[in-house]
Amino acid sequence: MRRVNRVLSGVLFCVPLMGFALNNATSYTTQAQVVDLQQQALMALSQGGNLKQNESKIFLGVTIKGNLDKAQAALQYAVNLVPERQDLTYALASVEVMNGNLNAARMNYSHLEQQTPQSVDALTFQAGYAAVAGESQLARRYQAQLVALNTPAAKHNLQALAIAESAFNLQPKIDFSKSVNPSARSVIVILGYALHSDGSMDDKLIHRLEVGLATLQQNPLATIIVSGGVAQGGVTETYLMRQWLIEHGVKNSQVILEDKSIDTVSNALNSLALVQKLGDIDHVIVVSSSSHIRRAVAVFEQASANLNLALTIDNQAAWDWGNLKASPAASVTEKSLILRDTLRTAGLWALPGILR
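Above: the chain's sequence. Below: its structure in token form.
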């Protein structure tokens, strides 16, 4: 009988251990699945595919690539597997914003805020997207909560929200006389645009260069930074941009290459790091397509704030709104993307820990 009891005790003792082993195995399997899903989302974001047309229609002068539907589906699956992982929910909401699913994104941000009511990030997103949707009273309520937290992070994010909201109403400049500042303390930053597969420049990029050159003619002592590092056909955007400018009479010594950027956020961060090294600069003129200029200016303003630079961020737009006689008001989709990239520049990653 004692032997039977000892055997039963041994079996009972082993049961929780077996359960622990099974739970561990399940946990490791889930972790592996989540990592795989994250990689699928990243791959989908970096490759061509069946993009929704909302962003490409609004930002005619912006390079668009990726498959947002696949990325969103992968992240949704990951969130379903481990709903306690807030980083995954933040990532999903970010992709939903990119994909034009603002209501779904706001539901996820609301869920995150309910989980952690004192979270600076959750309150920031809530405030920002309420402003995007035109719900100003709700936006101010969340901003008041951030003010009440009185932390450096909350203050930093409030500044980013203010920069984004200011850009919502920015009027692109097409009158060159309005950006004249004929001093050596000016820098003109011309943003790149994706090259064709054979390494040739798109008409949109050439138009930006023409506007950049005209801007230089009004600011002859300025330095030019050409920004964009994506290569096609063995050359980068910046290499061809500098070559075009030199062929049109600009001195080689007057042009600086910034060839590490892959998007607007990195354009701003990398270009203003170069501006900081130049020293004694107080005026930056950003040149991009008119459909992109609001977002570009907001991102450059935030990058300047990150570095505590005392800069006036000006703009000069290459018109790409066809026969429109005036700049259209920013739509909800455009505002959401301005906000997204301003917050990315401020340090709130699109996919936390994975993709800025």
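Residues 1-169+330-356 form a domain with the Serine Threonine Protein Phosphatase 5, Tetratricopeptide repeat fold (CATH 1.25.40.10).
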